[in-house]
Amino acid sequence: MADLCVEYARRRRIRALWRPVLLLALMLAFGWWIADAASEQYRWQWYRVWRFVGVWEDGTFRSGALVDALYVTLRLTAASLLLACASGALLAFMRLCASPVARLLSGLLLGALRNTPLLMQLFMVYFVVAPVLGVGPFTAAVLSLGLFEGAYVAEIFRAGVLSVPKGQWEAAMSLGMSTGLAARLVIIPQALGQALPALAGQLVSLVKDTSLVSAIAVADLTMRARVIITDTFLSFEMWLLVAAVYLFLTSLVSIPARLLERKEHI
Hints:
- The chain has a two-stranded antiparallel ribbon.
- The chain has 266 residues and is mainly alpha-helical.
- It has helices spanning 2-37, 65-96, 100-114, 118-133, 137-163, 166-174, 179-209, 221-232, 235-264, and strands spanning 54-57, 60-63.
- It is 78% helix and 3% strand.
- It is globular and about 70 Å long.
- Helix 2 packs antiparallel against helix 3 and helix 8 (221-232) runs antiparallel to helix 9.
């Protein structure tokens, strides 16, 4: 029976791994079919695109504008994710604590962040907050994205904590644990397991939301693509390539999240 459970779990992990890969392959095949069908009306010029990805010179790879922009996007995503998790955890703690002042302040802040557009927040931080703090566009983008996504992460964390049965608290307390120790060793691990699918979805949203930072002159993937299109008029080629890159990035997020989610339910 144990061997059957292990084999069943292995097959579920394999299915969770290959579904996003299969979806990516099908979407790429569909895009290729559309491009081939439209070849009679539009002359594709993919050979002009690859130099913006990178070139080989004397046996070494020299990255192009798109690879450099991808690096900026990855740095922006990583920094914003750290800030979103930190601010989300703090806001969730404030929402769950007994102090009415903390609950009121966190509720007001969450309402302001969640009920206003991200683009407007980017402009406010870039034109108002950034000059006061003396920071550049990249830091302004990290602050905007981190706080905006942190507002949603806070509700995910809070829902995860509330989903843990109260009996877990009582069992931890009966063992002589303090409130902080019980939360760290018993409640938070279970809450994170419950919140994992929603957190993965929020990370996918963060990756896509980074495309908005081009509005405040951050040289991310979207902004570099716009500049290249202005210079070369390769609109369809560039946007298809950028869309494929974003799809690949979000798939990289989805696959590990699915594997971990399956593991939690075994």
